[in-house]
Fold this sequence. Notes:
- By secondary structure, this protein is α/β, with parallel strands linked by helices.
- The chain folds into 3 domains: 5-84, Gyrase A, domain 2 (2-Layer Sandwich), CATH 3.30.1360; 118-367, Rossmann fold; 383-556, Orthogonal Bundle (Isoleucyl-tRNA Synthetase, Domain 1).
- The chain has 21 helices and 13 strands.
- It has helices spanning 5-23, 45-51, 55-65, 86-100, 129-148, 163-174, 185-200, 204-218, 222-245, 256-261, 264-273, 312-324, 339-351, 383-401, 407-427, 439-442, 450-467, 480-490, 492-502, 506-525, 533-556, and strands spanning 40-43, 71-76, 79-84, 113-117, 151-158, 252-255, 279-281, 284-290, 298-302, 329-335, 359-363, 366-367, 435-436.
- The strands form 4 sheets. It has a 5-stranded parallel β-sheet with strand order 6-5-4-10-11, sandwiched between helices.
- The longest helix has 24 residues, at 222-245.
- The chain starts with a helix and ends in a 9-residue tail after the last helix.
Amino acid sequence: MDPMERYVAEAREYINARLASDYGKDARLELEIPAARADFACPCFILARKSGKTPQQIADGLAAGYAGSGLKMWAENGYLNINADPVSLAAETVTAIRTSGDDYGKTAEGREKIIVEHTSINPNGPIHIGRARNALIGDTLVRCFRHAGLNVESEYYVDDAGKQVTMLVWGVQHLEAPTTGIIKPDRKLVDYYIRASELAGKDEKCAAEIQEMQRRLDQGDPEIVRSVRMIADDVLEGIKESLSNINVRLDRYSYESDLILNGKVAGVIDKLKKLPEAKEDGGAWYIPIGGKDGEDGEDRFYFTRTDGTSLYTTRDVAYHIDKFSRADRLVDVLGEDQKLGIRFLSAALKLLETGREPDFLFYSFVTLPAGKMSTRAGSFVLLDDILEEGKRRAKEEVLKRRSDISDAEATAIASVVGLGALRYNIVRLQAEKKVVFRWEEALNFEGNSAPFVQYAHARACSILEKAGPWSAGSVAYREEAELALCKQLALFPSILRDVSRSMAVHRMAVYSHELASLFNQFYRLVSVLKAAEGVRTSRLALVDATRQVLRISLDCLGIEAPRSM
Protein backbone atom coordinates (compact mmCIF):
# COMPACT_ATOMS: atom_id res chain seq x y z
CA MET A 1 0.00 0.00 0.00
CA ASP A 2 1.15 3.52 -0.82
CA PRO A 3 -0.25 6.19 1.55
CA MET A 4 0.57 8.90 -1.00
CA GLU A 5 -1.46 7.20 -3.73
CA ARG A 6 -4.81 8.82 -3.07
CA TYR A 7 -3.23 12.27 -2.83
CA VAL A 8 -1.36 11.74 -6.09
CA ALA A 9 -4.61 10.57 -7.72
CA GLU A 10 -6.45 13.67 -6.47
CA ALA A 11 -3.69 15.95 -7.76
CA ARG A 12 -3.65 14.29 -11.17
CA GLU A 13 -7.42 14.40 -11.48
CA TYR A 14 -7.52 18.11 -10.64
CA ILE A 15 -4.57 19.04 -12.88
CA ASN A 16 -5.84 17.05 -15.87
CA ALA A 17 -9.32 18.60 -15.56
CA ARG A 18 -7.89 22.12 -15.39
CA LEU A 19 -5.52 21.51 -18.28
CA ALA A 20 -8.32 20.14 -20.47
CA SER A 21 -10.47 23.16 -19.61
CA ASP A 22 -7.78 25.83 -20.05
CA TYR A 23 -5.45 24.38 -22.68
CA GLY A 24 -7.32 21.62 -24.51
CA LYS A 25 -7.86 17.91 -23.95
CA ASP A 26 -4.40 16.94 -25.22
CA ALA A 27 -2.51 19.15 -22.71
CA ARG A 28 -0.46 17.14 -20.21
CA LEU A 29 1.89 17.72 -17.30
CA GLU A 30 3.92 15.06 -15.50
CA LEU A 31 4.14 14.76 -11.73
CA GLU A 32 7.57 14.41 -10.14
CA ILE A 33 7.29 12.06 -7.16
CA PRO A 34 8.91 12.80 -4.78
CA ALA A 35 9.93 16.37 -5.59
CA ALA A 36 12.73 18.53 -4.25
CA ARG A 37 10.60 21.11 -2.41
CA ALA A 38 7.30 19.30 -1.99
CA ASP A 39 5.70 15.88 -1.81
CA PHE A 40 5.25 16.08 -5.58
CA ALA A 41 5.43 18.76 -8.23
CA CYS A 42 4.53 19.63 -11.83
CA PRO A 43 7.14 21.38 -13.97
CA CYS A 44 5.23 23.64 -16.35
CA PHE A 45 7.97 24.39 -18.90
CA ILE A 46 6.92 22.09 -21.74
CA LEU A 47 3.33 23.34 -21.67
CA ALA A 48 4.60 26.93 -21.58
CA ARG A 49 6.32 26.50 -24.93
CA LYS A 50 3.09 25.28 -26.49
CA SER A 51 0.66 27.67 -24.82
CA GLY A 52 2.44 31.03 -25.11
CA LYS A 53 2.31 31.55 -21.33
CA THR A 54 5.25 31.53 -18.96
CA PRO A 55 5.77 28.48 -16.72
CA GLN A 56 5.07 30.65 -13.68
CA GLN A 57 1.75 31.89 -15.12
CA ILE A 58 0.61 28.30 -15.71
CA ALA A 59 1.66 27.23 -12.20
CA ASP A 60 -0.02 30.30 -10.64
CA GLY A 61 -3.28 29.50 -12.42
CA LEU A 62 -3.29 25.89 -11.33
CA ALA A 63 -2.49 26.76 -7.70
CA ALA A 64 -5.14 29.49 -7.52
CA GLY A 65 -7.85 27.24 -8.98
CA TYR A 66 -7.60 24.42 -6.45
CA ALA A 67 -10.52 24.43 -3.99
CA GLY A 68 -10.13 21.04 -2.32
CA SER A 69 -8.95 20.29 1.22
CA GLY A 70 -6.65 17.26 0.87
CA LEU A 71 -3.82 19.13 -0.83
CA LYS A 72 -1.86 22.32 -0.52
CA MET A 73 -0.66 23.86 -3.80
CA TRP A 74 1.68 26.76 -4.49
CA ALA A 75 3.59 28.04 -7.49
CA GLU A 76 7.36 28.59 -7.43
CA ASN A 77 9.87 29.12 -10.23
CA GLY A 78 7.64 27.58 -12.87
CA TYR A 79 6.69 24.57 -10.76
CA LEU A 80 3.33 23.69 -9.25
CA ASN A 81 4.32 22.30 -5.84
CA ILE A 82 1.89 20.03 -4.00
CA ASN A 83 1.81 18.75 -0.45
CA ALA A 84 -0.61 16.24 0.99
CA ASP A 85 -2.51 17.23 4.13
CA PRO A 86 0.13 16.32 6.76
CA VAL A 87 -2.23 15.35 9.58
CA SER A 88 -4.33 12.98 7.46
CA LEU A 89 -1.27 11.59 5.70
CA ALA A 90 0.49 10.88 9.01
CA ALA A 91 -2.33 8.79 10.44
CA GLU A 92 -2.92 6.94 7.16
CA THR A 93 0.80 6.18 6.80
CA VAL A 94 1.28 4.64 10.23
CA THR A 95 -1.90 2.58 9.83
CA ALA A 96 -0.80 1.40 6.37
CA ILE A 97 2.65 0.32 7.59
CA ARG A 98 1.35 -1.57 10.58
CA THR A 99 -1.28 -3.26 8.39
CA SER A 100 1.09 -4.12 5.52
CA GLY A 101 4.04 -5.33 7.60
CA ASP A 102 6.85 -6.65 5.41
CA ASP A 103 4.84 -5.90 2.26
CA TYR A 104 4.92 -2.15 2.81
CA GLY A 105 6.29 -0.53 -0.33
CA LYS A 106 5.27 -3.28 -2.75
CA THR A 107 3.44 -1.59 -5.61
CA ALA A 108 4.39 -3.72 -8.66
CA GLU A 109 2.78 -6.95 -9.85
CA GLY A 110 5.91 -8.61 -11.19
CA ARG A 111 4.48 -10.01 -14.39
CA GLU A 112 7.58 -9.62 -16.54
CA LYS A 113 10.67 -11.70 -15.78
CA ILE A 114 13.85 -9.69 -15.13
CA ILE A 115 17.36 -11.14 -15.07
CA VAL A 116 19.96 -8.99 -13.33
CA GLU A 117 23.48 -10.15 -14.14
CA HIS A 118 26.03 -8.89 -11.67
CA THR A 119 29.38 -9.73 -10.09
CA SER A 120 30.51 -12.16 -12.86
CA ILE A 121 34.10 -12.01 -11.63
CA ASN A 122 36.61 -14.01 -13.69
CA PRO A 123 37.25 -17.23 -11.73
CA ASN A 124 41.00 -16.71 -11.57
CA GLY A 125 41.36 -15.28 -8.08
CA PRO A 126 39.66 -13.80 -5.01
CA ILE A 127 37.43 -10.75 -4.85
CA HIS A 128 39.12 -7.45 -4.17
CA ILE A 129 37.22 -4.38 -3.02
CA GLY A 130 37.09 -2.98 -6.56
CA ARG A 131 35.26 -6.05 -7.85
CA ALA A 132 33.04 -6.12 -4.78
CA ARG A 133 31.40 -2.86 -5.85
CA ASN A 134 29.71 -4.70 -8.71
CA ALA A 135 28.36 -7.36 -6.37
CA LEU A 136 27.06 -4.84 -3.83
CA ILE A 137 25.38 -2.59 -6.39
CA GLY A 138 23.86 -5.57 -8.20
CA ASP A 139 22.64 -7.31 -5.06
CA THR A 140 21.09 -4.09 -3.73
CA LEU A 141 19.27 -3.55 -7.04
CA VAL A 142 17.91 -7.11 -6.96
CA ARG A 143 16.72 -6.64 -3.37
CA CYS A 144 14.97 -3.37 -4.27
CA PHE A 145 13.34 -4.99 -7.31
CA ARG A 146 12.09 -7.88 -5.18
CA HIS A 147 10.71 -5.71 -2.43
CA ALA A 148 8.93 -3.54 -4.99
CA GLY A 149 7.17 -6.70 -6.16
CA LEU A 150 9.07 -7.36 -9.39
CA ASN A 151 9.85 -10.86 -10.65
CA VAL A 152 13.65 -10.88 -10.68
CA GLU A 153 16.42 -13.46 -10.86
CA SER A 154 20.08 -12.71 -10.18
CA GLU A 155 22.68 -14.35 -12.37
CA TYR A 156 26.47 -14.75 -12.41
CA TYR A 157 28.15 -15.26 -15.80
CA VAL A 158 31.13 -17.53 -15.20
CA ASP A 159 33.82 -16.56 -17.70
CA ASP A 160 35.53 -19.96 -17.77
CA ALA A 161 36.45 -19.73 -21.47
CA GLY A 162 38.60 -16.61 -21.36
CA LYS A 163 42.37 -16.21 -21.37
CA GLN A 164 42.60 -15.39 -17.65
CA VAL A 165 41.25 -18.79 -16.62
CA THR A 166 43.28 -20.58 -19.31
CA MET A 167 46.39 -18.92 -17.89
CA LEU A 168 45.44 -20.04 -14.39
CA VAL A 169 44.93 -23.64 -15.55
CA TRP A 170 48.30 -23.64 -17.33
CA GLY A 171 49.88 -22.39 -14.12
CA VAL A 172 48.30 -25.15 -12.03
CA GLN A 173 49.50 -27.76 -14.52
CA HIS A 174 53.07 -26.48 -14.93
CA LEU A 175 54.17 -24.51 -11.86
CA GLU A 176 55.12 -25.59 -8.35
CA ALA A 177 52.47 -25.28 -5.68
CA PRO A 178 52.64 -22.13 -3.54
CA THR A 179 54.11 -22.51 -0.06
CA THR A 180 51.91 -19.91 1.64
CA GLY A 181 49.78 -22.46 3.49
CA ILE A 182 46.58 -20.73 2.36
CA ILE A 183 43.61 -23.12 2.18
CA LYS A 184 40.79 -20.98 0.75
CA PRO A 185 40.83 -22.01 -2.95
CA ASP A 186 40.46 -18.62 -4.61
CA ARG A 187 43.28 -17.15 -2.54
CA LYS A 188 45.47 -20.21 -3.03
CA LEU A 189 44.99 -20.55 -6.79
CA VAL A 190 45.48 -16.86 -7.65
CA ASP A 191 49.21 -17.36 -6.99
CA TYR A 192 49.37 -19.66 -10.04
CA TYR A 193 47.66 -17.02 -12.18
CA ILE A 194 50.00 -14.22 -11.10
CA ARG A 195 53.13 -16.32 -11.74
CA ALA A 196 51.82 -17.69 -15.07
CA SER A 197 50.99 -14.16 -16.22
CA GLU A 198 54.47 -12.95 -15.38
CA LEU A 199 56.07 -15.92 -17.13
CA ALA A 200 53.93 -15.61 -20.28
CA GLY A 201 55.08 -12.03 -20.64
CA LYS A 202 58.70 -13.06 -21.04
CA ASP A 203 58.65 -16.73 -22.14
CA GLU A 204 57.46 -17.33 -25.70
CA LYS A 205 57.06 -21.10 -25.15
CA CYS A 206 54.81 -20.50 -22.16
CA ALA A 207 52.73 -17.93 -24.08
CA ALA A 208 52.39 -20.31 -27.05
CA GLU A 209 51.23 -23.17 -24.84
CA ILE A 210 48.62 -20.96 -23.20
CA GLN A 211 47.43 -19.81 -26.63
CA GLU A 212 47.13 -23.41 -27.84
CA MET A 213 45.15 -24.35 -24.73
CA GLN A 214 42.88 -21.38 -25.39
CA ARG A 215 42.34 -22.51 -29.00
CA ARG A 216 41.42 -26.04 -27.91
CA LEU A 217 39.07 -24.66 -25.25
CA ASP A 218 37.35 -22.45 -27.83
CA GLN A 219 36.83 -25.49 -30.06
CA GLY A 220 35.20 -27.38 -27.20
CA ASP A 221 37.97 -29.92 -26.57
CA PRO A 222 36.40 -32.12 -23.82
CA GLU A 223 39.68 -32.65 -21.96
CA ILE A 224 40.49 -28.93 -21.80
CA VAL A 225 36.91 -27.99 -20.92
CA ARG A 226 36.95 -30.50 -18.04
CA SER A 227 40.26 -29.17 -16.69
CA VAL A 228 39.16 -25.57 -16.93
CA ARG A 229 35.74 -26.19 -15.38
CA MET A 230 37.22 -28.10 -12.45
CA ILE A 231 39.71 -25.36 -11.54
CA ALA A 232 37.24 -22.54 -12.28
CA ASP A 233 34.75 -24.20 -9.93
CA ASP A 234 37.38 -24.43 -7.19
CA VAL A 235 38.00 -20.69 -7.46
CA LEU A 236 34.27 -20.06 -7.68
CA GLU A 237 33.70 -21.88 -4.38
CA GLY A 238 36.03 -19.41 -2.69
CA ILE A 239 34.32 -16.50 -4.41
CA LYS A 240 30.90 -17.78 -3.31
CA GLU A 241 32.13 -17.98 0.28
CA SER A 242 33.31 -14.37 0.13
CA LEU A 243 30.02 -13.26 -1.42
CA SER A 244 28.06 -15.09 1.27
CA ASN A 245 30.11 -13.27 3.91
CA ILE A 246 28.89 -9.93 2.52
CA ASN A 247 25.31 -11.21 2.30
CA VAL A 248 25.27 -11.66 -1.50
CA ARG A 249 23.68 -14.80 -2.93
CA LEU A 250 22.94 -15.37 -6.60
CA ASP A 251 20.12 -17.46 -8.02
CA ARG A 252 21.90 -18.86 -11.06
CA TYR A 253 25.41 -19.43 -12.40
CA SER A 254 25.72 -19.63 -16.22
CA TYR A 255 28.96 -20.95 -17.70
CA GLU A 256 30.58 -19.44 -20.77
CA SER A 257 31.99 -22.85 -21.77
CA ASP A 258 28.44 -24.23 -22.04
CA LEU A 259 27.76 -21.73 -24.81
CA ILE A 260 30.72 -23.20 -26.70
CA LEU A 261 29.75 -26.82 -26.06
CA ASN A 262 26.10 -26.35 -27.09
CA GLY A 263 27.09 -24.60 -30.32
CA LYS A 264 25.54 -21.22 -29.49
CA VAL A 265 28.82 -19.34 -29.94
CA ALA A 266 29.47 -21.04 -33.28
CA GLY A 267 25.91 -20.19 -34.33
CA VAL A 268 26.44 -16.52 -33.56
CA ILE A 269 29.72 -16.47 -35.49
CA ASP A 270 28.04 -18.08 -38.48
CA LYS A 271 25.21 -15.52 -38.45
CA LEU A 272 27.62 -12.60 -38.05
CA LYS A 273 29.74 -13.80 -40.98
CA LYS A 274 26.65 -13.83 -43.22
CA LEU A 275 25.82 -10.19 -42.48
CA PRO A 276 26.53 -7.86 -45.41
CA GLU A 277 28.50 -5.63 -43.02
CA ALA A 278 30.94 -8.43 -42.05
CA LYS A 279 34.52 -8.16 -43.31
CA GLU A 280 37.63 -10.36 -43.16
CA ASP A 281 41.05 -9.12 -42.13
CA GLY A 282 43.88 -11.65 -42.44
CA GLY A 283 41.63 -14.50 -41.32
CA ALA A 284 39.97 -12.51 -38.53
CA TRP A 285 36.38 -11.37 -38.98
CA TYR A 286 34.97 -8.04 -37.88
CA ILE A 287 32.05 -5.66 -38.28
CA PRO A 288 32.75 -1.92 -38.61
CA ILE A 289 30.93 0.06 -35.94
CA GLY A 290 30.35 3.81 -36.22
CA GLY A 291 32.25 6.17 -33.95
CA LYS A 292 30.96 6.86 -30.44
CA ASP A 293 28.06 9.33 -30.32
CA GLY A 294 28.24 9.97 -34.06
CA GLU A 295 31.95 10.84 -34.05
CA ASP A 296 33.90 10.46 -37.29
CA GLY A 297 35.78 7.25 -37.96
CA GLU A 298 34.90 3.72 -37.00
CA ASP A 299 35.70 1.04 -34.49
CA ARG A 300 35.99 -2.58 -35.45
CA PHE A 301 34.09 -5.28 -33.60
CA TYR A 302 36.27 -8.34 -34.15
CA PHE A 303 34.20 -11.42 -33.48
CA THR A 304 36.91 -13.98 -34.40
CA ARG A 305 40.67 -13.98 -34.19
CA THR A 306 42.92 -14.93 -37.11
CA ASP A 307 42.97 -18.54 -35.86
CA GLY A 308 39.17 -18.65 -35.88
CA THR A 309 38.71 -18.56 -32.11
CA SER A 310 36.00 -16.39 -30.61
CA LEU A 311 36.46 -13.28 -28.49
CA TYR A 312 34.79 -12.36 -25.22
CA THR A 313 32.19 -10.06 -26.78
CA THR A 314 31.28 -12.73 -29.36
CA ARG A 315 30.52 -15.14 -26.56
CA ASP A 316 28.71 -12.34 -24.75
CA VAL A 317 26.37 -11.92 -27.74
CA ALA A 318 25.51 -15.63 -27.53
CA TYR A 319 24.99 -15.30 -23.78
CA HIS A 320 22.57 -12.38 -24.15
CA ILE A 321 20.56 -14.17 -26.83
CA ASP A 322 20.31 -17.10 -24.40
CA LYS A 323 19.23 -14.80 -21.56
CA PHE A 324 16.58 -13.16 -23.75
CA SER A 325 15.08 -16.61 -24.29
CA ARG A 326 14.59 -16.82 -20.51
CA ALA A 327 13.46 -13.29 -19.58
CA ASP A 328 11.50 -10.24 -20.68
CA ARG A 329 14.07 -7.73 -19.49
CA LEU A 330 17.81 -7.89 -18.89
CA VAL A 331 19.91 -5.68 -16.63
CA ASP A 332 23.72 -5.85 -16.73
CA VAL A 333 25.81 -4.31 -13.94
CA LEU A 334 29.17 -3.43 -15.47
CA GLY A 335 32.34 -1.49 -14.86
CA GLU A 336 32.82 1.66 -16.90
CA ASP A 337 35.70 0.02 -18.79
CA GLN A 338 33.13 -2.23 -20.50
CA LYS A 339 31.46 0.57 -22.45
CA LEU A 340 33.26 -0.10 -25.75
CA GLY A 341 32.45 -3.80 -25.58
CA ILE A 342 28.83 -2.93 -24.82
CA ARG A 343 28.70 -0.73 -27.93
CA PHE A 344 29.81 -3.76 -29.93
CA LEU A 345 27.34 -6.03 -28.13
CA SER A 346 24.41 -3.67 -28.72
CA ALA A 347 25.36 -3.22 -32.39
CA ALA A 348 25.59 -6.99 -32.91
CA LEU A 349 22.22 -7.62 -31.25
CA LYS A 350 20.68 -4.97 -33.50
CA LEU A 351 22.28 -6.36 -36.68
CA LEU A 352 21.10 -9.85 -35.77
CA GLU A 353 17.60 -8.39 -35.47
CA THR A 354 16.97 -9.71 -31.98
CA GLY A 355 14.67 -6.77 -31.32
CA ARG A 356 16.00 -6.66 -27.78
CA GLU A 357 18.62 -4.71 -25.86
CA PRO A 358 19.63 -4.95 -22.20
CA ASP A 359 19.58 -2.11 -19.71
CA PHE A 360 23.07 -1.27 -18.48
CA LEU A 361 24.05 -0.02 -15.04
CA PHE A 362 27.64 1.21 -15.23
CA TYR A 363 29.75 2.01 -12.21
CA SER A 364 33.14 3.66 -11.75
CA PHE A 365 36.05 1.85 -10.23
CA VAL A 366 37.27 1.60 -6.69
CA THR A 367 40.95 2.48 -6.48
CA LEU A 368 43.56 2.68 -3.76
CA PRO A 369 45.29 5.97 -2.88
CA ALA A 370 48.29 4.51 -4.74
CA GLY A 371 46.27 3.75 -7.88
CA LYS A 372 44.23 1.07 -9.65
CA MET A 373 43.92 -2.47 -8.30
CA SER A 374 45.04 -5.39 -10.48
CA THR A 375 44.78 -9.15 -9.93
CA ARG A 376 47.45 -9.79 -12.57
CA ALA A 377 49.92 -7.52 -10.81
CA GLY A 378 48.90 -8.82 -7.39
CA SER A 379 48.08 -5.28 -6.18
CA PHE A 380 44.71 -5.35 -4.51
CA VAL A 381 42.93 -5.18 -1.16
CA LEU A 382 41.01 -8.39 -0.62
CA LEU A 383 37.37 -8.24 0.37
CA ASP A 384 37.93 -11.00 2.95
CA ASP A 385 40.62 -8.92 4.68
CA ILE A 386 38.51 -5.76 4.66
CA LEU A 387 35.59 -7.60 6.21
CA GLU A 388 37.75 -9.04 8.99
CA GLU A 389 39.29 -5.64 9.67
CA GLY A 390 35.80 -4.13 9.73
CA LYS A 391 34.65 -6.63 12.34
CA ARG A 392 37.75 -5.95 14.47
CA ARG A 393 37.24 -2.19 14.40
CA ALA A 394 33.51 -2.58 14.97
CA LYS A 395 34.15 -4.67 18.06
CA GLU A 396 36.42 -1.98 19.46
CA GLU A 397 33.64 0.58 18.97
CA VAL A 398 31.00 -1.69 20.52
CA LEU A 399 33.11 -2.34 23.63
CA LYS A 400 33.71 1.40 24.06
CA ARG A 401 29.95 1.94 24.27
CA ARG A 402 28.79 -1.30 25.93
CA SER A 403 30.61 -2.41 29.06
CA ASP A 404 27.57 -4.47 30.05
CA ILE A 405 27.92 -7.24 27.43
CA SER A 406 30.11 -10.32 27.07
CA ASP A 407 32.91 -10.73 24.56
CA ALA A 408 30.74 -13.16 22.57
CA GLU A 409 27.88 -10.65 22.40
CA ALA A 410 30.28 -7.92 21.31
CA THR A 411 31.67 -10.19 18.59
CA ALA A 412 28.17 -10.97 17.30
CA ILE A 413 27.18 -7.29 17.17
CA ALA A 414 30.50 -6.37 15.55
CA SER A 415 29.91 -8.89 12.78
CA VAL A 416 26.59 -7.25 11.88
CA VAL A 417 27.91 -3.70 12.22
CA GLY A 418 31.18 -4.31 10.34
CA LEU A 419 29.39 -5.88 7.36
CA GLY A 420 26.80 -3.10 7.36
CA ALA A 421 29.51 -0.43 7.35
CA LEU A 422 31.19 -2.00 4.33
CA ARG A 423 28.03 -2.47 2.25
CA TYR A 424 26.64 0.96 3.04
CA ASN A 425 29.91 2.78 2.37
CA ILE A 426 30.07 1.36 -1.17
CA VAL A 427 26.39 1.66 -2.09
CA ARG A 428 25.74 5.14 -0.68
CA LEU A 429 27.78 6.72 -3.48
CA GLN A 430 26.35 7.21 -6.96
CA ALA A 431 27.50 4.37 -9.19
CA GLU A 432 29.10 6.72 -11.71
CA LYS A 433 31.31 8.33 -9.04
CA LYS A 434 34.83 7.00 -8.57
CA VAL A 435 35.75 5.70 -5.14
CA VAL A 436 39.20 5.95 -3.61
CA PHE A 437 39.13 3.28 -0.93
CA ARG A 438 40.34 4.40 2.50
CA TRP A 439 39.99 2.36 5.66
CA GLU A 440 38.89 5.32 7.76
CA GLU A 441 35.99 6.10 5.41
CA ALA A 442 34.84 2.51 4.81
CA LEU A 443 34.73 1.81 8.52
CA ASN A 444 33.29 5.12 9.66
CA PHE A 445 30.75 4.54 12.44
CA GLU A 446 29.45 8.08 12.72
CA GLY A 447 27.26 10.26 10.50
CA ASN A 448 26.30 8.92 7.09
CA SER A 449 26.94 5.27 7.80
CA ALA A 450 25.17 1.96 8.29
CA PRO A 451 25.82 1.91 12.07
CA PHE A 452 23.96 5.23 12.32
CA VAL A 453 20.89 3.69 10.64
CA GLN A 454 21.25 0.38 12.49
CA TYR A 455 21.42 2.19 15.83
CA ALA A 456 18.15 4.00 15.03
CA HIS A 457 16.51 0.61 14.47
CA ALA A 458 17.98 -0.75 17.72
CA ARG A 459 16.73 2.34 19.58
CA ALA A 460 13.20 1.81 18.21
CA CYS A 461 13.32 -1.83 19.36
CA SER A 462 14.49 -0.73 22.81
CA ILE A 463 11.65 1.77 23.18
CA LEU A 464 9.07 -0.84 22.23
CA GLU A 465 10.58 -3.38 24.63
CA LYS A 466 10.50 -0.89 27.51
CA ALA A 467 6.89 0.01 26.72
CA GLY A 468 5.59 -3.42 27.69
CA PRO A 469 2.17 -4.54 26.41
CA TRP A 470 0.28 -1.87 24.46
CA SER A 471 -2.34 -1.64 21.77
CA ALA A 472 -3.00 1.19 19.34
CA GLY A 473 -6.40 1.81 17.87
CA SER A 474 -6.81 5.01 15.92
CA VAL A 475 -3.72 7.21 15.78
CA ALA A 476 -3.29 10.97 15.54
CA TYR A 477 -0.26 13.21 15.09
CA ARG A 478 0.11 16.99 15.41
CA GLU A 479 3.66 17.73 16.52
CA GLU A 480 6.05 18.92 13.82
CA ALA A 481 8.59 16.16 14.57
CA GLU A 482 5.83 13.53 14.31
CA LEU A 483 4.55 14.87 10.99
CA ALA A 484 8.05 15.13 9.47
CA LEU A 485 8.80 11.52 10.43
CA CYS A 486 5.45 10.29 9.08
CA LYS A 487 6.01 12.07 5.78
CA GLN A 488 9.38 10.34 5.38
CA LEU A 489 7.71 6.99 6.07
CA ALA A 490 5.02 7.79 3.50
CA LEU A 491 7.69 8.41 0.84
CA PHE A 492 9.14 4.90 1.04
CA PRO A 493 6.97 3.32 -1.69
CA SER A 494 7.81 6.23 -4.02
CA ILE A 495 11.52 5.89 -3.26
CA LEU A 496 11.37 2.15 -3.92
CA ARG A 497 9.61 2.73 -7.24
CA ASP A 498 12.14 5.39 -8.15
CA VAL A 499 15.11 3.11 -7.37
CA SER A 500 13.50 0.29 -9.38
CA ARG A 501 12.95 2.60 -12.36
CA SER A 502 16.23 4.54 -12.31
CA MET A 503 18.45 1.76 -10.86
CA ALA A 504 20.07 4.48 -8.72
CA VAL A 505 20.51 2.26 -5.66
CA HIS A 506 22.36 4.94 -3.69
CA ARG A 507 18.98 6.64 -3.18
CA MET A 508 17.93 3.83 -0.85
CA ALA A 509 20.94 4.57 1.35
CA VAL A 510 20.12 8.29 1.27
CA TYR A 511 16.52 7.53 2.23
CA SER A 512 17.46 5.25 5.14
CA HIS A 513 19.87 7.84 6.55
CA GLU A 514 17.24 10.60 6.34
CA LEU A 515 14.69 8.34 8.02
CA ALA A 516 17.12 7.51 10.86
CA SER A 517 17.91 11.23 11.29
CA LEU A 518 14.23 12.19 11.49
CA PHE A 519 13.57 9.39 13.99
CA ASN A 520 16.42 10.59 16.20
CA GLN A 521 15.01 14.10 16.00
CA PHE A 522 11.54 12.83 16.92
CA TYR A 523 12.99 10.91 19.89
CA ARG A 524 14.80 14.03 21.16
CA LEU A 525 11.88 16.44 20.81
CA VAL A 526 8.85 14.47 22.02
CA SER A 527 8.21 12.12 24.88
CA VAL A 528 7.06 8.60 24.03
CA LEU A 529 7.02 6.35 27.08
CA LYS A 530 6.01 9.12 29.51
CA ALA A 531 3.37 10.73 27.29
CA ALA A 532 -0.33 10.75 28.23
CA GLU A 533 -2.04 7.44 27.44
CA GLY A 534 -3.71 8.27 24.11
CA VAL A 535 -0.68 10.15 22.86
CA ARG A 536 1.62 7.40 24.17
CA THR A 537 0.00 4.63 22.12
CA SER A 538 -0.04 6.78 18.97
CA ARG A 539 3.66 7.51 19.39
CA LEU A 540 4.45 3.88 20.11
CA ALA A 541 2.66 3.01 16.86
CA LEU A 542 4.84 5.56 15.10
CA VAL A 543 7.97 4.07 16.66
CA ASP A 544 6.85 0.62 15.55
CA ALA A 545 6.14 1.84 12.00
CA THR A 546 9.59 3.47 11.87
CA ARG A 547 11.21 0.27 13.12
CA GLN A 548 9.46 -1.64 10.34
CA VAL A 549 10.50 0.70 7.52
CA LEU A 550 14.07 0.99 8.82
CA ARG A 551 14.26 -2.80 8.79
CA ILE A 552 12.86 -3.02 5.24
CA SER A 553 15.17 -0.28 3.91
CA LEU A 554 18.19 -1.93 5.54
CA ASP A 555 17.15 -5.26 4.04
CA CYS A 556 16.99 -3.58 0.62
CA LEU A 557 20.61 -2.57 1.25
CA GLY A 558 21.54 -6.10 2.32
CA ILE A 559 22.22 -4.95 5.87
CA GLU A 560 20.95 -6.64 9.02
CA ALA A 561 18.77 -4.61 11.36
CA PRO A 562 19.97 -5.46 14.90
CA ARG A 563 17.65 -5.24 17.88
CA SER A 564 20.54 -4.29 20.14
CA MET A 565 23.84 -2.45 19.63
